[in-house]
Design goal:
alpha/beta; TIM Barrel; 5-stranded parallel beta sheet; 36% helix
């Protein structure tokens, strides 16, 4: 049954690309195989999440470059690249290069804030400028300008036998229009809209209500779907394209239609361990996590159709659970493409 207001138009998947720290090669190869499988199953996009100093992909752009040579249609994105770890000028060069190699399939998603575990990494990341770095929205706008082709140097022309431009080379036409912002608050969603970005709405939102009581009288105050829907509405209200502005929702979904009994038991334990954190805002950032969706494709489709956040979008990036085996991901991706997607009105790309 199609979602309220229309069918799902685009469907992608997101992964952190887990690997063994002592033998990282096979994990990276498995990730590439999963992207190839995603294309074969008709997914519209495959997205990579950054994981620095962890057993997950630390260089998504390198993986995207490799994947671009094994695929021909599926779009390749980052969800998201934390710009506090990046130089926007160098990042623009890398993104443009991979976009050209892929034939215009790169979907860069970014976010801003102080890098995770800042006190532990700042001396290695910014040994001379840590106290002067600006980790605010301007970092995104710099990247946007560089991808658009705005001047980045005061010089262009010929010096000796060498030719120089004042803009990032190579230039990838259209790449700046595919720049996404990963927002988790009303302010960030509206800011992304005001600046003409696309919006990635994930499984985490910032709770911006009153101080969390020890025993809330109304648990509906922490309704993730309602909060996410409000952010998506704020984004489109601020965006020049209005209702046509691109926004994508990302939740963890685990269809079990073709799963073995052992897989179903593992998936249920995974969800059970993560569910308590969804009951109330977590940490100083007051982050609210979405419950994982586990069950048959039909059951998950019904839950999504009732989800206020999902009802605001026509494209999704479903997140794969962390730390599973390659065979688990093959089963989840296959059920998502062949059962869940069609139940949501989606058709696989040829």
């Amino acid at each position: 049954m199609p979602v309220a207001g229309g069918p799902l138009l685009r469907m992608g998947f997101l992964t952190i690309g887990s690997f063994d720290l002592d033998d990282p090669g096979p994990g990276h190869e498995s990730l590439l195989e999963e992207i190839v499988l995603g294309e074969r199953l008709g997914f519209d996009s495959a997205w990579l999440r950054h994981r620095h100093f962890q057993p997950g992909v630390s260089s998504p752009i390198a993986i995207m470059a490799a994947a671009s040579q094994r695929t021909s249609r599926i779009h390749l994105g980052t969800a998201v690249t934390p710009l506090g770890w990046e130089n926007p000028l160098r990042l623009a060069e890398d993104l443009a290069t991979v976009d050209l190699l892929s034939g215009g399939r790169v979907e860069p998603g970014v976010s801003v804030s102080t890098p995770m575990r800042w006190d532990d990494v700042k001396d290695a990341l910014y040994p001379d400028t840590a106290d002067a770095e600006d980790f605010g929205y301007e970092r995104v706008l710099r990247l946007q300008r560089f991808l658009r082709g705005d001047p980045a140097s005061r010089f262009s022309g010929t010096q000796g036998i060498e030719v120089f431009t004042d803009a990032v080379t190579p230039h990838a036409a259209g790449l700046s229009d595919r720049l996404w912002y990963g927002g988790a608050s009303l302010r960030s969603a509206a800011w992304a809209g005001e600046h003409g970005l696309n919006l990635l709405a994930s499984s985490v939102v910032r709770y911006e209500g009153a101080e969390t009581p020890d025993d809330p009288a109304d648990p509906a105050e922490y309704d993730f779907a309602r909060i996410q829907a409000a952010q998506l509405q704020a984004f489109r209200a601020a965006h020049p394209a209005g209702a046509e502005a691109r926004a994508s929702q990302g939740l963890v979904v685990i269809p079990t239609d073709s799963a073995t009994p052992a897989q179903r038991e593992k998936y249920a334990a995974y969800v059970a361990a993560r569910t308590p954190r969804t009951a109330r805002p977590q940490g100083p950032g007051r982050l609210l996590f979405a419950p994982d969706l586990l069950g048959s494709a039909e059951e998950i489709a019904e839950q999504l159709q009732a989800h206020a956040g999902y009802r605001e979008v026509r494209e999704v990036v479903f997140a794969l659970p962390f730390g599973f085996e390659h065979d688990d991901y093959v089963q989840i991706l296959t059920d998502t493409a062949t059962r869940l997607g069609p139940a949501l009105g989606w058709s696989p790309s040829a």
